[in-house]
Amino acid sequence: MNFLKSFLASILGTVVAFIFIGIVFFMAIAGIASTFGTEEALQVEVAENSILQLDLDLPVMDNVASTQEFEKALGLENDVLKFTNVIAAIDKASKDDNIKGIDLQSQSPSMGWSQAQSIRKALNDFKAEGKFVYAFGDYYSQKGYYLASVSDSIFLHPLGGMEFKGLAAEVLYYKDFQEEYGFKMEVVRHGKYKSAVEPYLEREMSEANRSQIQSLLNSVWGTVSEEIEASRSLTSENLKSIAEDLAANLPENSQKVGLIDDLIYASDYKNKLKAALGLEEDDRLRKVDLSQLAGTKALYKKGVRERIAVIYAQGPILYGEGSENIIGQDVFLEAIEDAVKNRRVKAIVLRIDSPGGSALSSDIIWNALLKAKEKKPLVVSMGNVAASGGYYLAAAGDEIYANDLTITGSIGVFATLPNAKKFTESIGINAQHVLTHKNALGFSLFESPSTEFRASIKEGIEHVYDTFKARVAEGRNMSLEEVEEIAQGRVWTGKQALENGLVDGLGGFEQALEAAARLAELEEYNLISYPKIEPEFDDFLSVMGPFGSIEEQLMENYPKEIQAFLTTLINKTERPNIEIRLPYTVEIK
Question: I need a surface site. Which of 218, 221, 345, 370 has the fewest CB within 10 A?
């Protein structure tokens, strides 16, 4: 028996040792691969008469997690494109005389509408240099076609397809579900349009929510259709008719109505590219990819010491540490402090892609940004979403820039309290309480909140709402009455936000950099990114199959509102969080 125990212990020790050595090995390989890739990007020589191969069917993120290279080395994760690298590569290609065109793939891009608009503008600027953009796809989603429509010629597989149907939004409502199964989300809110919590309260959409979603969709579609019209020489009536009648449902029809130029196979498309370059069919097609043009060192300007710090605020705002994909006060206070203390940093650009979250964390970070602004110019660049807590952070900026398609505003407050009392009673669980004072229980998952407790939370929400409005009034030089007119949780596109004074200008990340350089009086500069988060051992374990957690994968399969309920249960505290978060979860498709 002792021999068996020793034998099994020996095997277990050997397995653990091999796993540890493997992790160290792959960490080293990932580091070497990353370094090698960067040097390669620095030394790449673009051959004459080349094209840039631009694959936009990969996930696009503002900031990429530090474990990304490790995951790629293990083959656990697909490539992820860094948004600023895509823009930089297109810009660099436009200035390289050896690059004559772009081979664009954008069948079903995984990016936000704001990112898509910025990339589309960069492609338009590329064409303005006298160069061509060709696109080919087996299928085009609506967003994919929006990107491809900037091309000189768009080609589609003869048996392919495309979406062109206008925009729609779908919101799920859970009141009947809650009543049937006994899980309930108690809600305290402020703001006529604060409808993040509406699915828990109603069976159907309120007129206020329907009105704001309709306004949002109309604004987005107006911008999308205008840009397609300009590129394809179509009228607004043409596009409206195509969408209304689903007139591009078949490949032949999409060509007939003018959305597609030709129906061909991939091999024929390759010959189209060669012809655009003046090559014969037997000639070699020379291509360069994005990574070769947009490596970190490839974009670095030698001899330039001044820098603009880019602080990426990406993901929900949660009280706590934070990461590349979660905005927490600990990580971001350190990032802001580092940017301020760095003598080479002359200005700060805060890049926001966040639906908001914790009111407390938002205010802590806002205060740090305000202090940073006293020492260095602070310019805000809004990505796909900068709403509620995201806008709270933006209000600290000297200047704020958004794209037409950015989702912003949502100045409103709410709190949610999960209540499983009916469910637990139905399965024979009855919670009993002993108190010293009538309100001593406070928040309990197994009891409905008392009138006094609800009133207390309501008072806290009113306080946060008044503070939120005051921050906006101070940052935007508005009166409280003016802020109230555009607040109440109402959501706006960037285009609408410019009209009502919530932003200073329409433009992407490049425009924000230009504004920061202007305020800091910089002619040339390099970029430095924050927050700088070194991956820990647990991070590497978490991305490996045997050690990875399946909770996140399971959670992703639930609707967003159910995710919020389950997350609140998992992270139950003695007092509910007062949140400033995007007022509803809706995908524009």
Answer: 218
The catalytic residue among 184, 194, 469, 495 is: 194
User: 1.10.4080.10, 3.90.226.10, 3.40.50.11030, 3.40.50.720: which CATH number matches 300-534+543-581?
Assistant: 3.90.226.10
Crossing angle of helices 207-232/236-245, nearest 10°?
Answer: 120
Q: How far is CA 433 from the centre of its chain?
A: 44
Per residue in 495-504, pLDDT (tens digit) is 999 999 999 9
β-strands 184-190, 413-419: how paired? antiparallel
- Contact between 308 and 349 (Cβ < 8 Å): yes
All residues at 6 or more sequence positions from 112 whose CB lies less than 8 Å from its CB, including other chains: 353, 383, 384, 385, 405
CA distance 480 to 194: 18
Q: How far apart are CA 113 and CA 382, in angstroms?
A: 12
Measure CA of the first residue to CA of the last residue in the chain; give whole Å: 64
Tokens of 101: 């065109």
In the structure encoding, which two tokens stand for residue 334, read together?
């350190």
Q: What is the pLDDT of residues 127-172, one digit of tens each?
A: 999 999 999 999 999 999 999 999 999 999 999 999 999 999 888 8
Residues 6+ apart with CB under 8 A from 351: 62, 63, 310, 311, 312, 313, 314, 381, 383, 509, 512
Burial 173-189 (b: 16+ CB within 10 A, else e): bbbebbeeebbbbbbbb
What CATH class is the domain 41-165+246-293?
Answer: alpha beta
Tens of pLDDT along 524-583? Answer: 999 999 998 765 545 444 444 444 444 455 555 555 545 554 554 554 455 556 788 875
Type of residue numbered 490: R
DSSP-based three-state secondary structure for 238: helix
The segment with the largest mean pLDDT, out of 207-216, 264-273, 429-438, is 264-273
* DSSP conformational letter for 325: S
The pair of three-digit structure tokens given for residue 454, joined into one six-digit string: 């609800």
Nearest to residue 220, comparing CAs of 30, 425, 496, 490? Answer: 496
Q: Where are the beta strands (DSSP E) in 258-377?
A: 262-263, 287-289, 307-314, 345-354, 356-358
Summary mean pLDDT of the chain: 85
Alpha carbon distance 401, 380 (integer Å): 6
Annotation says 388 is catalytic: yes
Verify whether residue 194 is a known catalytic residue: yes
| Cα–Cα distance, 419 to 552 (Å, whole number) | 23
Backbone angles phi, psi at 486, to 5 degrees: -110, 5
Q: How many CB atoms lie within 10 A of CB 575?
A: 13
The single residue listed with the structure tokens 């990340």 is 509
pLDDT tens-digit series, residues 245-293: 999 999 999 999 999 999 999 999 999 999 999 999 999 999 998 888 8
Burial label, 396 (beta-carbon count in 10 A; 0-12, 13-18, 19+):
buried
Asked if residue 325 lies in contact with residue 314, where contact means CB atoms within 8 angstroms, the answer is yes
Tokens (6 digits) for 481: 């009455």
Which residue in the list 388, 410, 421, 495 is annotated as catalytic? 388
Distance of CA 334 to the CA centre of its chain: 22
